[in-house]
Write a structure and sequence with these properties.
The complex is a heterodimer of chains A (about 300) and B (about 450). With about 300 residues, chain A is mainly α. Chain A contains 13 helices and 2 strands; from the N terminus they run H-E-E-H-H-H-H-H-H-H-H-H-H-H-H. Chain A is flat and about 70 Å long. The termini of chain A are far apart. Chain B folds into 2 domains: about 190 residues, 3-Layer(aba) Sandwich (D-Maltodextrin-Binding Protein, domain 2); about 170 residues, D-Maltodextrin-Binding Protein, domain 2. The chains are: A mainly alpha (about 300), B alpha/beta (about 450). Chain B: It is found in: Cell envelope.
Chain lengths: ~300, ~450
């Protein structure tokens, strides 16, 4: 009996020995894993996480960058509700994002599909489409500013040829400045997203199309029934990065229009900078930052939720 | 020589009087612990400057001072010209500001002086200039009666004009009595006559109005009675006639329109320097640039002069009223003892006659306007030196570009983005833009109750 028990227990003892070894391996892996992510995470922690957490306090305070922020409750938020510049910036950011995202996505997708076919010189065209993305935005914006010049710009010369004299006022007009910014932004980013989508397209097995064409599906049906569903993970990633990038737009409007004329191209990111560094009002600027943060957060969460629902 | 006074002086007069009656002025209260400078001790101080290659003033001041004080070394620390205030703000909040640093304009001065705690009290230097007709330090006085900066440059806005263009077109040149209406009339006449004198009608304009907010608002504020009080009360109607004129000039094609100026980033130096504009309202700092550009060939060679800035046609004054912010020097509050004494001595030297002489030699408008400084300035090679130019440079009442107070930063910013940009771009009418700007400023809660 005792023998049996001891035998049994000795049998039972063996697996814990294994798990001990497993645990050791697990611990080592964990340690190595942590060491590997440490450089990135420490940077993220010090440079991003801590400032972001602090922002939640600064957004509820009065602070001129000197001394310590003084908590002032909801004062900044009340100010926000009747700040017409903030409203203009908010609306502009939304308008810019909605138009820019749909335009970029549509063109990038179309280009990717086109350049995924056996087109002559497609490597050349892929490079051409990617080129704007690696160009310095300041230099590119200067050139676009010249192209958009109302009197002597190439664009208006061409438009005038067709319309017989009428041409948009572009940067000098409150109606057209945003259009110009969106055109340049789309031009810049289409190439980058095209490459991402192209990579996704190439993972779709050719057999699917073969099978579909045998079953009598036309190209259009193949696109909607095979390409789009297979591309959902890629499109989801593209949409999320594109959305966040669009909400944070700053460099282009800064170089091209500086938010003007009036407030017609003022976006949230620029308003945040303006309030902080021109008005030395870092507390209120923090409040506007929180709004931008919440906006990005909400839209991204909705996208995740929608993606998960579709995946089930 | 220069009629130095300002609305602030008047406003703060009562306070100043009390201090003078109290005996030795503010220096005893504020700078009671003033260290005495030991000239024999080796001391090093740091001094902030920007664009050192193209802006010789920092080196000129440092070198001049070191010559007079051989045991003190001034090390210049270079900043970016465009991001100076941003960099300085982060330095001050991190308590790592240089020992001596320039204050570029009055708009930011209040935040630095009253809120940052990073600036040393310079009231003892100010008290030494009390009653000195050659220098005006009043613009740096805060509500508490203390001074945290001293001016070392006091530019002012004048009317630059191309004598050759006026002569060839046969239009009467400015005579020093102009109002803005006379300016308009001359411009209209030039527009009519310049093409006949051989100037290209499509690219040459009678005037050039730069795109800055101050080009309209600075004059409106300085030349309208009571505008400095209205500023913090939220009444900006004083801007209206100035904007109506600016729009008229633009509409009649007397100047390049504002939208083009901004979208093509027109440089006023090129516009006037290559004879594309016959008249240019601009700060006296441009004289030094024009002189050096004419020498280097970046600007055409032509005869030019400075005339007193045109006056408000709706108000009678017997003196020329113009505006400009002084450029000041401040001392860090982080230093003490010998270092502090040396830094203060440096600031005093720069704002005084010796520093001003050194600046005048490089055609930079200094803060101390004695006769000999003026002679030095107009004696520089290539400088306009007719009587009208001398009069324009020396005889005027210079008001600050904007009043100094807790709300200045926000008010200036709204007046720029909403009012100036709104009106000049044609987005909104003058009345609408002013109404909207006023409302925005009220909503920001920065007005005096």
């Amino acid at each position: 009996m005792t023998q049996a028990t001891s035998a049994a227990s000795s049998v039972r003892v063996a697996p814990p020995d294994h798990s001990k070894a497993n645990k050791a391996i697990g611990r080592r892996n964990l340690r190595n894993g942590l060491i590997f992510i440490a450089p990135n995470f420490i940077g993220f922690f010090v440079l991003i996480l801590i400032p972001v957490v602090q922002l939640f306090y600064i957004g509820f305070s009065k602070w001129s960058a000197f001394g310590d922020p003084k908590f002032n409750g909801l004062t900044n938020w009340v100010r926000l509700t009747h700040d017409s510049n903030f409203k203009a910036a908010f609306v502009n950011t939304i308008v810019y994002s909605v138009v820019h995202i749909s335009l970029t996505l549509a063109i990038a997708f179309a280009l990717a599909v086109l350049l995924n076919t056996k087109l002559k010189g497609r490597a050349f065209f892929r490079t051409v489409a990617f080129f704007p993305y690696i160009t310095s935005i300041v230099a590119a914006a200067q050139v676009w500013n010249m192209l958009f010049d109302v009197k002597s710009g190439v664009i208006n010369q061409i438009i005038k040829f067709f319309t017989g004299g009428w041409a948009p006022g572009w940067m000098g007009s409150t109606k057209w400045a945003m259009v110009a910014v969106i055109i340049v932004a789309t031009w810049r980013e289409v190439g980058y997203y095209m490459i991402l989508i192209l990579a996704g397209l190439q993972t779709i097995p050719g057999e699917l199309y073969e099978a579909a064409s045998i079953d009598g599906a036309n190209k259009w049906q193949q696109f909607w029934k095979i390409t789009v569903p297979c591309m959902r993970p890629t499109l989801f990633f593209v949409l999320v990065t594109l959305t966040i990038g669009s909400f944070k737009i700053l460099d282009l409007t800064l170089v091209m229009t500086n938010g003007g004329p009036g407030t017609s191209t003022l976006v949230l990111a620029q308003y945040i900078y303006m309030v902080a560094f021109n008005r030395q009002d870092f507390g209120y600027s923090g409040t506007v930052s929180l709004v931008l943060f919440a906006l990005c957060m909400v839209v991204t969460l909705v996208q995740f939720w929608y993606n998960n629902k579709k995946e089930k | 020589m220069k009629k130095v006074s300002s609305l602030f002086k008047a406003a703060a007069f009562a306070g100043a009087a009390v201090m003078m009656l109290a005996g030795c002025g503010s220096s005893n209260n504020a700078g009671g612990k003033t260290e005495t400078l030991d000239e024999n001790a080796k001391t090093e101080i740091t001094f902030a400057g920007w664009s050192l290659d193209t802006t010789p003033e920092f080196k000129t001041l440092a070198d001049g001072f070191m010559k007079d004080h051989p045991n003190i070394t001034v090390n210049i620390k270079q900043y970016s010209a465009d991001d100076y205030d941003t960099q300085l703000t982060s330095d001050i909040s991190g308590k790592s500001q240089p020992d001596v640093f320039p204050i570029k304009n009055l708009q930011k001065y209040y935040a630095y002086a009253a809120e940052s705690g990073g600036l040393a009290d310079l009231s003892d230097i100010a008290s030494e200039y009390e009653g000195d007709k050659n220098i005006d330090v009043s613009q740096y006085k805060l509500e508490d009666g203390k001074y945290y900066a001293m001016p070392y440059r006091q530019d002012s806005w004048v009317l630059f004009y191309n004598k050759d263009m006026f002569e060839k077109a046969g239009v009467d040149a400015p005579d020093g009595t102009w109002t803005w209406d006379d300016y308009t009339k001359a411009a209209e006449e030039l527009k009519e006559k310049l093409p006949a004198a051989g100037y290209d009608a499509s690219s040459v304009y009678p005037m050039y109005q730069h795109g800055w907010q101050s080009v309209v608002q600075g004059f409106a504020l300085a030349q309208t009675d009571g505008a400095y009080d209205d500023y913090f009360k939220g009444d900006y109607s004083y801007l209206k006639p100035y904007y109506e004129r600016a729009l008229k000039w633009q509409k009649e094609g007397l100047t390049i329109d504002w939208n083009t100026v901004n979208s093509t980033k027109v440089q006023y130096q090129a516009q006037f320097g290559t004879q594309k504009a016959a008249m240019l309202p601009m700060g006296t700092w441009y004289a030094a640039t024009l002189v050096s550009q004419q020498k280097s060939g970046d600007a055409d060679t032509f005869n030019w002069g400075m005339a007193p800035i045109p006056q408000n046609p709706d108000e009678k004054t017997d003196e020329t009223v113009t505006f400009a912010d002084p450029t000041g020097l401040a001392v860090s509050s982080n230093i003490s003892g010998q270092k502090l004494a040396a830094a203060k001595e440096f600031v005093k030297w720069c704002s005084g006659e010796k520093g001003s002489e050194a600046l005048a030699k490089i055609a930079t408008t200094p803060a101390y306007f004695s006769d000999s400084v003026a002679d030095t300035y107009f004696g520089t090679d290539g400088m306009a030196n007719d009587d009208l130019s001398k009069k324009a440079w020396t005889e005027h009442k210079t008001n600050p570009e904007n009043p100094v107070g807790a709300g200045t930063n926000t008010i200036q910013d709204v007046l720029n983005t909403v009012v100036h940009s709104g009106i000049m771009s044609g987005t909104s009418s003058v009345d609408d833009a002013i109404a909207k700007g006023t409302q925005d400023i009220k909503d920001q809660g920065v007005l005096q109750q």
